[in-house]
């Protein structure tokens, strides 16, 4: 009987020891599985976050390309590889706690929301004030990007929203200036245009894609707001004075009053807008080759000297074909 009890006790001890060993082994295995799962999830999050971070960098720097290694994030790191043309690929390889995860996104830039240009100058306002003097030249006949007359479709020299505004413009310009407003229909080429653009929404879309942002102030000789081969979207806040031999290509957006003087020239589209009164002044030999759009509750337009305000389909198309958006369409995302 005593031996039986001893044998039973020893047997139970062995069984319990085996159970404890088995439980410890399973516990170690379960713990390792949990650690591996956590590491894989963390590496995946780092890889995806890396792609998101560099999509934002691509929004700010539209020419960004190449390899960007050893970026630290969430106690791990990731390497970014950006390559391709209009359809680009962003590959992210993440490293965390000995685990590696790769993500790959294919993206393309959305098209720029581009304004229709229906006149050399288009004014949309509840109240227009005009002070046009000197040898100001407003011409809706087609010109090249440098302001030279070329064969092409003509648009009005001066476009407005309704017949009342059209009559006001015609009745309030001097005869000398009247003959200088050329374009569709002959001088004075002042016509109602059918434009239903939501200018606030459109300007906000363009501002989101701006390459250059400037505060209010004076910008003179040496200021370059894009080139013919690399046009830019420039956004200025407040009143801005563009003078001297400054120049630009692309789209210029002014949220406020704009003054262009000296030999300043812009090749593309100039949009000046505001919630109340905006004043636009063009003096000296300043020129806009493309189209000018002035939008506000009250628009006070002033032009003197030898200012040239010419419609140019070439300048507009140059901007349209070369400007890049800051918005992306994700075509695929592999992880």
Walkthrough of the structure:
The chain is α/β, with parallel strands linked by helices. It folds into 2 domains: 2-109, no CATH class; 121-322, no CATH class. It is 28% helix and 40% strand. It has helices at residues 2-60, 163-171, 175-180, 199-208, 313-322; strands at residues 66-73, 76-84, 87-96, 99-109, 121-132, 137-139, 158-160, 181-182, 190-192, 212-214, 217-219, 224-225, 232-237, 240-242, 247-255, 258-260, 265-273, 277-282, 287-303, 308-311, 328-334. It is elongated and about 95 Å long.
Short description:
With 335 residues, the chain is an alpha/beta fold. It has helices at residues 2-60, 163-171, 175-180, 199-208, 313-322, and strands at residues 66-73, 76-84, 87-96, 99-109, 121-132, 137-139, 158-160, 181-182, 190-192, 212-214, 217-219, 224-225, 232-237, 240-242, 247-255, 258-260, 265-273, 277-282, 287-303, 308-311, 328-334. It folds into two domains: 2-109, no CATH class; 121-322, no CATH class.
